[in-house]
Each structure stands twice: as C-alpha cells, then as structure tokens.
Design a protein that fits this description.
119 residues; alpha/beta; 2,3-Dihydroxybiphenyl 1,2-Dioxygenase, domain 1; 2 domains; 4-stranded mixed β-sheet; 18% helix; globular; Glyoxalase_6; Glyas_Bleomycin-R_OHBP_Dase; VOC_core; VOC domain-containing protein
C-alpha cells in the first residue's frame, strides 16, 4: 500500500495570519487554499507536503510535541530575520546546543539549525 505525506495541520487562533507568517518565513511559500475553515501553504501549488492552518478557539499553552526544523545557509542571519518578522526566542530546556529554538507569533516552537557546512 502506498502512502504520501500530504500536510501538517497547525491549529491557530488566527489561521490566515499564521499561514501568511509561515509562508514568508519559509521563503516565499504560496497560499493554495484560503477558506474560512482552513488556509494551506505549499512551496509551490502542486508540491507536497503543505502546512494546513485551521482555527482553534483556545491559545497554545504547552510545548509542541511536533515541530519544524529549518536549516538555513546562515543561522545567525536567519534567526535575526525571523525575530524581525515576529518570532521570539523560546526556552524548552535545550541548554547549550547547536540550534536556536524560536516560537512563531502564536507560540509554536521551531528550530533553526546550523548550516550543513557547520553541522
């Protein structure tokens, strides 16, 4: 039986706003669905997987059990860019590691890894 990874679903208090934030954060991903109950972004319209943002009435309150890792060419510059966009540093008990943990505008943690050449 074949299976294909379609998308990751993200509950959000403002699905449209958070989808647009992630589309910009991921370097120009595009909105492929924009409806009241869901907003989906993808790298390109026909390319999977996507991120599907759906409305949630309650705010996020605990650490994510699943998160996105980003690997930029320049970790320091990428962290600065994301902070300028509204991300913030997050402490999840990571101590001294080679990646930076940030949270998106709704508090969802994600990691910015060092570049491949530094890894």
């Amino acid at each position: 039986m074949a299976v294909r990874w379609e998308q990751i679903v993200v509950d959000a208090q403002d699905a449209g706003r958070l989808a647009r934030w992630w589309a910009e954060a991921l370097g120009g991903w595009v909105i492929v669905t924009d409806e009241p109950g869901e907003v989906e972004i993808r790298k390109s319209p026909g390319e999977l997987p996507g991120l599907l943002f759906t409305p949630a009435a309650e705010p996020k309150t605990v650490k994510n059990r699943l998160h996105i890792d980003l690997r930029p060419d320049d970790q320091e510059a990428e962290v600065e860019r994301l902070i300028d966009m509204g991300a913030r540093h997050a402490d999840i008990g990571q101590s001294d590691v080679g990646w930076v943990v940030l949270a998106d505008p709704e508090g969802n943690e994600f990691c910015v890894l060092s570049s491949k050449k530094d890894a």
